[in-house]
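Researcher: Next entry in the queue.
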Amino acid sequence: MNVQNEIPTMKTPTPPIACCPGFVLVVDDEEQNRALLRDPLEAQGHEVAEAQSGVEALQKILERPPDVILLDVMMPKLDGFEVCRRLKRDLKTAPIQILMVTALSERKERLMGIAAGANDFLTKPIDVREVTLRVANAVYTKQLFNRLENALLEVHQLHGLLPICCYCKRIRDDQNYWHRLETYISGHSGVRFTHRICPDCTEKLKADLQNT
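Model: Structure for this entry, 212 residues:
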């Protein structure tokens, strides 16, 4: 019997990660280099802002934090390494995805970038396809972080809800015990209550006494 060998078919490559367009900040002291990064990213639907120095970049990030930063390494005064270090030290800006753009290919410089907190690297001369893919991945990662942060915030808000009886106004604790409102608040905040009778209840009590 003749056995015919089947030639395996090649699978179609998995498409790039699909994500919503992000807000990208391109930082480079040369306008031509910024344009090389800006144009293909805008063609992909991303919103792109620009900064021509590290100082300007920090100011723009303070005003509106981006999802991703394409950060040139070799800049005067404040280089990319120092900008990256400052951003990663701040809890508010640490989640921003930073892609360092450099012509440096030596291991030492890459290790410096990693130590500064860089999330990824792009090497000059720029490959447009690589830029769009890496930025898409970085935007997707930042969007996942945002979703997780929002989910945790919702959990925190739900945790802050107190089950309270709509009739007697007693509050149920985590052990399923019911407490008087003032007892629960005093036990969880240290607040002490002084009991008084409000005007409405005073009038109601007077009416009840007159009817007895």
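Model: Residues 128-159 form the longest helix (32 residues).
Researcher: Noted, moving on.
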